[in-house]
Structures are given as structure tokens and as C-alpha cells.
Amino acid sequence: MIKVGIVGATGYTGIECVRLLQHHPQITITSLYSHQAVDKDVVDIFPGAKNLPPKFEAFDPKKKTDLDCLFLAVPHGTVHPMMSDLLTLECKIIDLSADFRLNDSSLFQKFYLEKHMNPEQLTGVPYGLPEIYKKEIKQASFVANPGCYSTASILALYPLTKQGLISNAVIDAKSGVTGAGKKASEGTHYCEVNEHLSAYNTNAHRHQAELKEHCHCDIVFSPHLVPMSRGIIASCYITLSNSLNYDDVQAIYTEFYNEAPFVEVHGLDHKATTQDSVGSNTCHITLKQVTEKTVILFASIDNLIKGASGQAIQNMNLMFDLPETMGLPQIALRI
Questions:
Q1: Among 166, 189, 194, 197, whose Cα sits 20 to 30 Å from the Cα of 143?
Q2: Domain annotation covers residue 322
Q3: In terms of C-beta density within 10 A (0-12 exposed, 13-18 middle, 19 or more buried), how is residue 194 classed?
Q4: Catalytic residues
Q5: Domain contains 142
């Protein structure tokens, strides 16, 4: 069995890692780390859970462990200061923070407003989007898990941008409140979110840096917060650089994702909805309107699964040469 530890085990993505890994046949969770819950009983957060360690621990990157795999479900700015110590650990690491998603330290500083303390490591860490970088992930010992908005948006655009077929795109993306993380803020209070829809960080969201590095076209990105717990739908309005008809576009997407177990491509008759994705690790891409130079498509994911913890486990499976789908849900909850 693969011995796993999770840092940040009491945050939303950490909790989701624990929940999903409980069903993984090749995993045993031997360490749960949380600086907010050190020495507290694990059953207080995970009542009824079996085969978990009894207490939460403090994580010390300098302390050697017998772990085979470590998940870092922590906020940005946490990992890059400790990277030198992490690299001495004899285990594979999946980083769910934003600290090593980008290749360019100046881009990190621009979007995250802090100087990167290990910029020389940035280009050596694969971007953990298996549908595009599977080969690099399989060979890696440290992988940077993508952001939730960027996962949906890159999967939506990449089959076209790879062929240089997009002149520009406008992405109107809507997310549930868990995308903001567990830490309380005024903007995520119930009375601020309930029955309201709000746009925020228009064309300045941090995940736009990932789009810049992986989708080489002009993009306007407008995220919105909607009054639901989880789920993302990215509505993409694309201007093509070449003329294509609907069949051309559908063929490009179907061929590109033909061997991607967690991407489903739908046609005109399908209703694009987060209901397809919530509770699963699957991204659903729905092609709608195609004129000679315009494509409209929608990508939906669960922000906590395919947009975070599920994708991290998908990466772990590849890193340990396990079946990519092992332990991961492919069918949504629907209700």
C-alpha cells in the first residue's frame, strides 16, 4: 500500500483529499497535518471515518517521514519558502497551492503580489493537467496541481489553441463559494452571497496567469461568484483565426480527448450544467454555436474534485503508474 500524508487536511481541498482517498484501493493515509488542529482528534473532523490516524499533526518539512506520497493542500505562499526542505523528502509530492504552477517568477509576483523564493525550481515542476502533460507527470516526483478556473478554461480552449486556431476568447466563468477556500471573509458570508451573483477580479484573477502560459491567445477572463457550494461552468466565446464549421470543431475536440477518461465532449443537444460534474472528477465540454469565425462552448467541473483534490489524485495515480481512474468518481451526484 502507498503511504500518504495530507498537509492542510482540515481545509476544503484537504477534506476532499481524505474523502476520496478513503475509497482508493492502493492507499493508506498515515499522516494528517493541520496547523489549526494540532493534537486534536481526527474523528472530530471526520466522524465515522475508518483507517485514519488518531490525531492531527504539525507539519515540519525538515522532519523525515516514511511517506510515499505527500499532498500539500495549502494556500499560495506556503510551499515556495520550504521547497528546499521538501526536495530532501524521499516521497512524491503533489502541490495544490499555486506556488509552482507558473514557469515565470515575474508572473507569479505580478499575480500573487509576493516574490518567489525558489524561482530556479519553477521550470522543473510539471503542470499537473493530465489531459495535456501526462508524460511529464508520470516521470515527476513533484507536480503542481492546476487551479480550478484554469482547469476548466484550459481544457475548454486547448484543443484549438494547440493548433493556433484561436484569435481571442472571452471566458465568463462562474464558481461556487468553496472556490474561495475555507477562511472566512466578508465576501463569502451567507448574507453576502445568498440570492446574489457577483463579478470579481475581472481580467485580473490569479488563475489568468495559468491561462497566459498554456493558452497562447488573447483572453479576457471574467470570474463570478454564484450562491452554490461547489461547481464551475466556464462559458467561452471564441473568435477563430481560421474558418471552421461545426463538424470541424467537434472532430478536433473528440479526437483530442479520445483517450482522456475524465473529459466528455457533448454536442448541440446537450444542456451545459454543473449538474453533470459536481461530485465527479469529469470535465464536461459542450459545443454549441459555431459560425465561420465564432465558437461558443461550455466547460463544467467540480471545483473541489477535478479543480483540486480529484485531479491531485489523478496525478498521483500517474506518478505511481496506477490506472489513471483508480479511486476517482466519473459520474456526478446529479442532485
A1: 166
A2: no
A3: exposed
A4: 148
A5: no
The three three-digit cell numbers of residue 198, written as one number: 457577483
**Mean pLDDT to the nearest integer, 190-213:** 88
Q: Is the pLDDT of residue 184 over 60?
A: no
**Which residue did the predictor score with more confidence, 63 or 181?**
63
- Residue 207, domain extent: 148-302
Could you tell me if 78 and 61 are in contact, meaning their C-beta atoms sit under 8 angstroms apart? Answer: no
d(CA 233, CA 271) in angstroms, rounded, equals 12
Residues 30 and 83 in one domain: yes
Dist CA 151 CA 283 (whole Å) = 9
pLDDT of residue 296: 97
Residue 113 confidence (pLDDT): 93
Kindly report the CATH number assigned to the domain that includes residue 269: 3.30.360.10
What is the per-residue pLDDT for 12? 94
Q: Is 266 helix (H, G, I), strand (E, B) or coil?
A: strand
pTM: 0.95
Residue 198 maps to a domain:
yes
In a domain, 210, yes or no: yes
**DSSP strands (E only) in 8-60:** 27-33
How far is CA 160 from its chain centroid? 21
